[in-house]
Amino acid sequence: MDRRRFTTTAALALAGLVPATRAASEGGALEWPGQRWDTVRSRDAGWNADELRAVDAAARELRSDAVMVVHRGLVVHEYGDVRRPLDLYSVRKSLLSVLFGIHHARGQVDLQTTMADLGIDDEQRLTAAERAATVQHLLQSRSGIYHRAAYETSEMAASRPPRGSHAPGTHWYYNNWDFNALGTVFQRCTGADVFDAIAADLAAPLQWQDFDPARHTRWHQEAVSRHPAYVLQLSARDLARVGLLMARSGRWGHEKLVPAGWVDESTRIHSMVPPGWQGYGYMWWTPLRAWPFWQRGGGDVFFAWGNHGQFLFVDRARDLVVVHRTTGPSLWRRPIDPEAVSPLLARILEAVPVA
Q1: How confident is the model at residue 252 (pLDDT cuts 50, 70, 90)?
Q2: Where are the domains of the chain?
Q3: Given this chain, do its domains 29-84+235-355 and 91-234 carry the same CATH topology?
Q4: What confidence score (pLDDT) does residue 5 get?
Q5: I want to staple 74 with a disulfide (CB 3.0 to 4.6 A). Which of 40, 58, 144, 344 is the partner?
Q6: Confidence at residue 296, expressed as pLDDT on a 0 to 100 scale
Q7: DSSP state letters, 108-125
């Protein structure tokens, strides 16, 4: 995705973790999927059938491969093949953010640990200033470490600032070096491989249906960096379980898998993406001017975004999760960015039953 316009000097101060103050579906029993999702007829759940037909029309216009809508823990609408594992592209980063929250709660991750403390380096060698960047800076994509990185698009490389141009924590740039190095950081802090942690901390408790670690994970290594990209494939219906976990503030059934405070902190705005289209947290996005029709209170709405139209939308206030997937690049499909997908999302919100 083209993020050349998404570079800015930070305007927001850091804050500590705070407990969540909202709860999904207050006052009623919560529905949770077991080994399989439970479905409900959209009409029976109060959804607008005409608007859902318009959702499908928008999906056909986008050449979407899968759309899944989960409301109050039940599947209310599906389009395409929601069972097929597809490349997550940059949505992988939001899943890693969830893993950091789990292991931060276990006392294995200190956000103020520096690259120097962890012995993190790279082919071009980190300067003393770069080695002062913290784990938190990398999660925010504000490390100030501007090295070449694996799995980097040409747009990202073209917009990379010069080395040494910004101190750690002072500037936001969508930086694949930060995201890939976090895979190395995670292993050094926890002793666990990222993919092993995904299988143990997410796939198992959330009961992913279509995930095979041997087939759907791979490391992407390039000579330009010591830090490979962690490439992951996931089906729409398994990704929706991650969305429900986040919509319910880290709760899954009777268990608290992720601290509510981490969900709040990782999805709040740490950096404003010019010209105010989105905000950025710990590898999660927040819609601002991009979707004026879908804005709630702070921390209520956020999303994961990957290249070629991979989206996971979470609306905690409505207890609503929406997944949008494609098979990847295509000559027959126009680029699907937040602006392109907005008509589909607007139709979904029009179909939601009135509270």
Answers
A1: very high
A2: 29-84+235-355, 91-234
A3: yes
A4: 31
A5: 40
A6: 60
A7: ---TT-BHHHHT---TT-
Of 8, 11, 18, residue with least CA distance to 298:
18
State the amino acid at position 113 in one-letter form. T
Classify domain 91-234 at the CATH superfamily level. DD-peptidase/beta-lactamase superfamily (3.40.710.10)
Q: What is the predicted pLDDT for the residue at 277?
A: 84
Q: Which two tokens mark 260?
A: 């509510």
Q: Is 340 exposed, middle or buried (0-12, 13-18, 19+ CB in 10 A)?
A: middle
34: tokens are 């077991």
Taking alpha carbons only, the member of 232, 235, 126, 228 closest to residue 187 is: 228
Contacts of 309 (CB under 8 A, 6+ apart): 62, 64, 324, 325, 326, 333, 335, 336, 340, 341
Minimum mean pLDDT among 101-115, 222-236, 281-295: which range?
Answer: 281-295
CATH architecture of 29-84+235-355: 3-Layer(aba) Sandwich (3.40)
| CB environment 60-96: b (16+ within 10 A), e (fewer) | eebebbbbbbbbbbbbbbbbbebebbbbbbbbbbbbb
